[in-house]
Amino acid sequence: MPVPGGTMLTHEEIAEKGSEKMREREAFLDRLRVMATLAVVMLHTATGVMDATDMSLYPEENRVFLTAMDLVCWSVPVFLVISGYLFLNPGREIGLGRMLTKYCRRIVLALVLFGVPYGCLELVAAEGRFRPGMPAEAFVKVLRGESWSHMWYLYLILILYLVTPPLKWMLARVPVGAVYGLAVILLSAFSILPYLARIYGWGDIAAMPDWAIYFFYYICGYLFAVDGFRLSKGGWKRKSLPVLAVLLAAGMAVSRIAGNYELRMAYNYPFTLLLSLLLFGWGVSAEKKPRAGQILTGQPEEGQRQGRGSTGEHPFWERASELSFTVYLIHPVFLNIAYKFFHVTPLSFAIGISLPVFFLGTLLLSAAGAWVLRKIAPLRKYVL
Fold first, then answer.
1. What b/e sequence results for 267-301 when a residue is b if at least 16 CB atoms lie within 10 Å of its CB, and e otherwise?
2. Cα separation of 341 and 122, whole Å?
3. 109: burial class by Cβ within 10 Å (0-12, 13-18, 19+)?
4. CA angle, corner 372, sides to 370 and 338, nearest 5?
C-alpha cells in the first residue's frame, strides 16, 4: 500500500498501524453509533407509516417522509462500516470459536428473546386476542426470518460474523490495492448499475441483488481501519469531508422538496452510499485523542459494561453508545403500539409537528426502556 514518501506497507505494518490508530480513534465510534441510532429511529418513524398507508392519498406528507428518509438512510450502512472497522481490522485477532461463542451467541439470543415477543404482538394485532400457541408460532417465524422488519439487520450481522474469520484470512493474503479493486467492483455492480437501471428502466440489471451492497460496506470498514489514518493528515481533508456531507444532504433534500424526484431511497443507492462514507470518514478524520483506558475492540471496558462508571473522556457518548443496540431492538415496540394498536400516526396531525413529536417520544421511551433492560445483569452480559 503506497504511503507518503513512496514506500509500501507490509501486512504486519498495516496491523501495527491499524492497532495503534484504533486505540487513538475509538471515541469517534461512540458518536457514530449514537447518531446512527437516532437516524434509525427517525427512519422507522417514517417508514412505519409509509409501509402501511397508501401514500398517494397524502402527496405532501409523502414528500416530507421521503426527504426524512433521504437524510437518515445512511444509518444502517454506517453500522455496517463500524462492524467492518472493528472485526476486520488486522490488529484485532478473533477466531471462529470466539466469534461463535461470544458474538454470534449474542445475536441469536437477541433474535429469540426479542423476536418471539414481537411475533406474538404481531399475531395479537392481527387477531385481536392472545392464544397459548402464539409463542410457538412466533418462534417458528423467527427461525424463518419473519420477525418484525427491523430484526432483518440481526440476521445480516449474524451472516457477516460467520464469514469474518475466513474473510480476515483472505484479506491478510491479498494486497490492499486488490481490496480497493473489489470495493470498486461491488460499488459498480450493486449500487451504480442498479440505480441507473431503475432510472432508465433496464430491467435485467435492476434485478441484480441489492443485498450484496452490505458486503461492500463491511469491506469499507476494513479499508478505513487499515488506511483511514490518511484522512487525519492535512487540515483540508478534515474540513472538506463535513462540507461535502452537508452539501450532499442539502442537495438530496432540495431534490425532494423543490424537484420531482420520487424514487424511494435505499441502502444501495449511490447518494446514500456516498453520504454514509463521507460521515464515517468525517468521524475518522476528526478524532485526535485516545479514549483513556479504551481497549482495541472498541467496546467498553468490563467495568463500563457492568455500570461501574466511565473510563473515558467522553462519558455522555460512552453511556449513550452502550444503549444503542438495545434502543435499536426495542424502539419499534412504541411505534407499533401507536400505529397498529391505537391507530395513531404522524398523519393523524400536522406533519410538521407530529413527525418530530413521534420521533422524540419514541427515542425517549426507547432510551428509558434500554436503561431499564440493561439493569438486568444476565441481559446486559449475554445479550445487550
1. bbbebbbbbbbbbbbbbbbbbeebbeebebebebb
2. 10
3. middle
4. 60
Mean pLDDT check: name the lowest of 17-26, 144-153, 205-214, 368-377. 17-26
HSE-CB of 331 using CA atoms within 13 angstroms: 27
Query: Per this entry, what is the length of the chain?
Result: 384
Alpha helices in 102-234 (DSSP H): 105-127, 134-143, 152-171, 176-187, 193-200, 203-206, 213-227
CA distances from 343 to 41, 82, 312, 337, 348 (A): 19, 36, 43, 8, 9
Instruction: Please check whether residue 197 is in contact with residue 177, taking contact to mean a CB–CB distance below 8 angstroms.
Output: no
Here the cell at position 20 is 495503534
Residue found by looking up cell 424526484 in the block = 261
pLDDT digits (tens, 9 = 90+) for 32-63: 999 999 999 999 999 999 888 888 889 889 88
pTM, full prediction: 0.86
Inter-residue long-range contacts of 335-344, CB under 8 Å, 24+ positions, other chains counted: 335/44, 335/45, 335/48, 335/362, 336/48, 336/121, 336/125, 336/148, 339/48, 339/49, 339/52, 340/52, 340/125, 341/125
Give the residue from 370, 346, 356, 313 showing the smallest Cα distance to 27: 313
Mean pLDDT within 305-323:
69
Cα–Cα distance list, 17 to 5, 6, 64, 281, 334 (Å): 16, 17, 44, 17, 44
Alpha carbon 331 to chain centroid distance?
Answer: 15
Alpha helices, DSSP H, located in 306-376 = 315-336, 351-373
